[in-house]
Design goal:
With 92 residues, the chain is an alpha+beta fold. 18% of the residues lie in helices and 45% in strands. Strand 1 (2-6) and strand 2 (9-12) form a beta hairpin. The radius of gyration is 12 Å and the shape is globular.
């Protein structure tokens, strides 16, 4: 379940947040970790969308060790769900 934390972001009851940080960036946050996702705005099916890199969730901003493939997939699914709640599609 999602709740709005601002006009630009949401918090999940699963413990993560997704919030627009700038024109071309969206922050994904869990606990004290932040991952900045570069996005390109677009339109998909007549509605707003963003496209992201396939390796967008490779590692947290302040950590050199890459996330496991399973963690990356979890984070991507969380991100997509949060964006969908906000009415924005994520293009592959």
């Amino acid at each position: 379940m999602f709740t709005w934390i601002s006009q630009l972001g949401v918090r999940s009851s699963d413990g993560f947040e997704v919030e627009c940080a700038g024109r071309f960036t969206i922050e994904y946050r869990e606990d004290d970790q932040i991952l900045t996702v570069s996005v390109k705005s677009g339109s998909c099916g007549g509605g707003p969308s963003v496209s992201i890199s396939p390796d967008a969730f490779a590692r947290w901003d302040n950590v050199q060790t890459p996330n496991s493939p399973a963690k990356q997939a979890e984070m991507r699914a969380n991100f997509v769900a949060a964006m969908k709640f906000q009415g924005i599609d994520v293009e592959p």
